[in-house]
Give the backbone structure.
Amino acid sequence: METLDIKQFITFKTDNETLELDKNIFNLFKSLFSGIDKNKKNKKFVKKVNTNILKNQTVQNNKDIISNKINLILNKLSESNIDNLIIEFIQNINQIDHDTFNEIQKTFYLKIVSEINFVKIYIKFLKIIGYLYNKVQGYQLSYFYSIVESKFKSDYIQQFIIPSNLSHSIKNIITDQTHRINNLIIINNLIDNNMLSESIYDYCNNIIMNQEIYISDIYHWFNLKNRQLTKNEINNITIILGKNICSPRDVILLENLINKTNNTVSDSLSSNIQTIIPTSQNTCLIKSEAFNNQCINILEEYLIGNILDDIKYFIDTVCIDINTKNKFCEYLFQYYFITKPTNIENKDSTIVIFDLIKQIIKNQYLFKSNLSKGLLLFNNTWKTQCHNYTNSINKMKKLLLLLKNAGITKGIEFLLNQYKI
C-alpha cells in the first residue's frame, strides 16, 4: 500500500479534483439514504436512559411505600399487641427481595435511633422479624448490624471510611452526632437480646476507653451496663483523669462513675432532699433511692457544666414513664427551692436552675402535665418545708408566672389564685 504524505493529504482540501465526489459514488449514497429529509426541522432525539437505580423514581417510590408501611406498624407497637402486629407485618410486607429487606432494616434503624425511649420493644420486634425472614428466605440482619457498627466507628475512630453499601440517607445519620449516645443504647440492647455476642462489650470498651474525642461517652457507655466497674476499668479511668484532656464536666462524670461503683452518693443535696420528704414516705424513698440519686447527680452535673443535652438524654433514657417524669419534675422544683444564690463560675446557681426549667418547657422535653403534677407533688410538703427555703414566696411566684406564661395551668389553678398570679 502506498504511504500518503500528510502535507499532500492536506492539499486535497482545496484541490478541485477532490472537492466533489465521483457521480457513481454520489448516486450510491443517495440511494442508500434517500429516506432522510435534511430540511426536516422536527428531529427526534432519543434521550439516554439513566440506569442509576438510586434515581429511578419507581424504585424510590417502592422504597418509600415500604418505609411508610413499616413506620405505621411501629407507631402502633406495644407489649400487648406485638403478636397481632407481627401478623399484620407478614400480611402487608410478605416475601421480598434482598434490597427491600435492606430497606426494612434501614427503616428500623432510623426509627429506633430517633425514638430511643422505645428501643426495647423495637428491638424485640426486629428480632422476631429477622428470625422469620431468616427461616423463610434465608436473610440475615447483617445490614442493620453494619449500620450500627459504622455509626459507632464513625463516632470514635478517626479517619474511618463508611462502607459504600450504605445508602446516602444512612451515611448522613452515621456522620450526625445527635444520635451518638442513642447508638450506644442500641448496641447495649442488641447484646441484652442475644442478637450480638457479649464479646462486643470488650471490643467497644477498648475503643471508647482509648478515644479522646468524646470523653463523657465513657461515662454514658459504662452507665448503660448497670454494673460496677472492674478494677482494671477503674484504673484506666483514673489514668484518663490524670491526663490534661478532660474538661471540668468530663472530670465530674468520670468521678461519679467511679463513685457509683463504690456506692457513694453526694451528701450535700441528698441530705437536703431527704429532709423535704416526710417520714411517712420513707418506704417510698428507699424504693426510689436509685432514681433519687440519679436525679441528684444529673442536676449537680448541670449546675456545673450547663449541658442541656445531658438533661434531655436523662429524661429520654431514665424517665421512661409518666411517674418517673413527674417525679423528676418534683426533684427539679425541690432543687430550685433548695439551691441557694451562690456563685458557680460567675453564675448565680438559682438563676441557672430557673433557666433550666425554662429550657425544659421551651424545648418540650416534658409534657405540660408532667410539670404541673410535679409541682403538685412538691406542694404536698410545702407547709412543713417552706421555712427551709430562701426567698420561698418570691421563688414560688416567679415559678408560677413562668408556668402560666407557658400555658401550664391545669390542676394548679388554686396555686395561681393563692399567689395572685
